[in-house]
From TrEMBL:
<dbReference type="InterPro" id="IPR029245">
    <property type="entry name" value="DUF4528"/>
</dbReference>
<keyword id="KW-0812">Transmembrane</keyword>
<dbReference type="Pfam" id="PF15031">
    <property type="entry name" value="DUF4528"/>
</dbReference>
<protein>
    <submittedName>
        <fullName>Uncharacterized protein</fullName>
    </submittedName>
</protein>
<feature type="transmembrane region" description="Helical">
    <location>
        <begin position="97"/>
        <end position="121"/>
    </location>
</feature>
<keyword id="KW-1133">Transmembrane helix</keyword>
<keyword id="KW-0472">Membrane</keyword>
Amino acid sequence: MLYSLVVKPIRTVIPGYGSRPLASDVLAAYLEKRQFPSWTSYFIRYRDIQDNDYGRKHFNFSVKGHNYHVLRVGCYPYIKYHCTRRPYADLSFEDRFFRLITVANLGIPCALYGLAAIFLIRHRDDVVEPTTRQRVTLHFLIEEVHN
C-alpha cells in the first residue's frame, strides 16, 4: 500500500523512472547469479531501480525455492540490502519495530550511513535484470567470496 501511495506517483515526476528495473527483480537476479549464497550484503543506487520495497525494513524474500530474510535500509543515495538464507518466519514485528526506529530518529543515522558508504565502497558487481535486460551495478564494502 505504501508503495502505491508514495512511490508510484514518483513515476510521473522523475523521467524514466517507470522504465527502471524493480529492486526485487534485481535482488532475485543477483541471488540466482551467485547460486543462492547463504548471505549477501550490498548497496544499490536509488537512481538505478524502482524501489518496489519502499518502506519495508525486514521481510521474507523467496526466489526459486530459497527463502531469504532481508534487512533493508534506505541510506541515500543508496539502499542497503542484507540478505540471509533462512526458513520463512513471521517478520512483521521486526519490520514494524525497525520502521518505528527509523521514524523516531528522523532517518538521520540512515543518511549518515549513506554518506559514509560513498567513501567506503570498495567493490562493484553488475547484474542483468532479466525482465528489462538492464545492467545494474551493485556496490559492496568488501568483495564477497562465496563457496
